[in-house]
Automatic annotation (TrEMBL):
SMART domains: PKS_ER. Residues 13-361 form the Enoyl reductase (ER) domain. GO terms for cellular component: cytosol. This is Mycothiol-dependent formaldehyde dehydrogenase.
Amino acid sequence: MAHEVQGVVSLAKDAPVQLTTIVVPDPGPGEALVDVQACGVCHTDLHYKLGGIGADYPYLLGHEAAGVVSAVGPGVTEVAPGDYVILNWRAVCGQCRACRRGRPWYCFATHNAQQKMTLVDGTPLSPALGIGAFADKTLVAAGQCTKVDPRIPPQIAGLLGCGVMAGIGAAINTGAVTRNDSVAVIGCGGVGDAAIAGAALVGAHTIIAVDTDKRKLEWAKEFGATHTVHPDDGDVVEQIQDATGGFGVDVAIDAVGRPETWKQAFYGRDLAGTVVLVGVPTPTMQLEMPLLDFFGRGGSLKSAWYGDCLPSRDFPVLSELYLQGRLPLDKFVTETIGIGDIEAAFDMMHGGDLLRSVVVL
């Protein structure tokens, strides 16, 4: 049978979101029905609302979530009713050329639930990142559910589903940061601070936080930043070099995604260093640089897709590190809110006044 629940929907570009009744079907083959317990308010949800990702309105927002599986469809073996899970938006197929080469974190055929959730009048909803978790229940592909230790609170666990994983993965998986490395992270919002936390976790000895907001630089110290750089104090690249004996960092992570910040990362790294782009550019952004600089500085230029994570591998490990007190995930939660408070959370996000609002259902 279908389930009528409350969900937060973006009906039109830049219109205020609405809390309304949605219809969630029972799971079909390969699908799982999840009772959502908590869901973070991510910038990606705001991008959907503003029309920055697509125009497939109405959108059912929310994707950074944890909850309990309440039912599964035919053929599902990965999870069972009662399992406590984090939702992910890259359910790997196991069959594409990336998966067959043993690189499932690059899966080129990730999938979502086949059935549509709808408004009461039958209008199909487009779930954000294939999840749609600002709702009491959501329908996903079973592969989008990753079992984790139920001792990790849902408002903490859900953060691993997107922003925190993207940042930690950018440092550890994509950037391959290791002990005694030096790292610069440009942009110290949730993703950037997660990259800082990841670099600290693996033993980077110098971690430089770069931001235009001095409040965020103070927050970055709580996640392991050893140095801070603000543009008012001088050229960003020169400040990074000054903190590293004049050489630049081993790994520079751009968590903003603008041409000017990418150039700071490029020139702020040491010779043969690595640049990781994890901030998402807009389609109109262009990069112009001398080609000789690419050759002359060597090294690697990488983009982090979802932190190059494999949820079945990474979510349980990071959950355990949190439970051991080695990964301060609770520091990412600025506030917990109700499902009717998401529009206000978007307003706070515009002002840079928080790291994460988390909806608790």
